[in-house]
Specification:
It is a single chain. The protein has 2 domains: 62 residues, Ubiquitin-like (UB roll) (Roll); 77 residues, Photosystem II 12 kDa extrinsic protein (DNA polymerase, domain 1), CATH 1.10.150.320. Helix content is 35%, strand content 14%. The chain contains 6 helices and 6 strands, in the order αββαβαββαααβ. The strands form 2 sheets. A 3-stranded mixed β-sheet has the order 2-1-3, with helices on one face. The protein has a 3-stranded mixed β-sheet with strand order 4-5-6.
Amino acid sequence: MPMFRRPMLALAAIALAVLFAGAMLFHEKEEAVPLDAGVRHEENTQITVYVSGAVMKPGVVAMKKTERVEQAIAVCGGPLPQADLSNVNLAQPLKDGMQIRVPERADAGGSAAKLAEADGKIHINTADEKKLDELPGVGPIMAKRIVEYRNEHGPFESVEDLAKIRGIGVEKLEKIREKAEL
């Protein structure tokens, strides 16, 4: 039996080593938990927007990132009686640096009518469907799409933004650009 003792000990040592290695592989490692786990770091929650036009106190205001256009107008004292809120998307989420322009009703005879057509050009952010229909290549249907897009997405940041509207291609945009402005 002494002859078999040495190989048996070696085999037992190998078996123990395999079992130990297997246990180490399948043993779940504990992950370090950061001290601030569960605490959500919020990015800068304040944004700045500019509210202009037919509001009581136009100006630059600090707002929460989660607020809407309606709340920014309220912070500026609310709309004036001659304000035309039908062309302002009050539910639009605010974005840092955005401008919210509240136009006056065209029948109010205020600056909105002048703003909608300054220097013979039509202001695409304040003009109504009837005025937009006067742009080259824009008919009543396209004018309606422009107003709907503006109500849904907010004021245009450039005349080139009109290309985002279905039916306005490069050629039509070039014609419109001659008579349109912000």
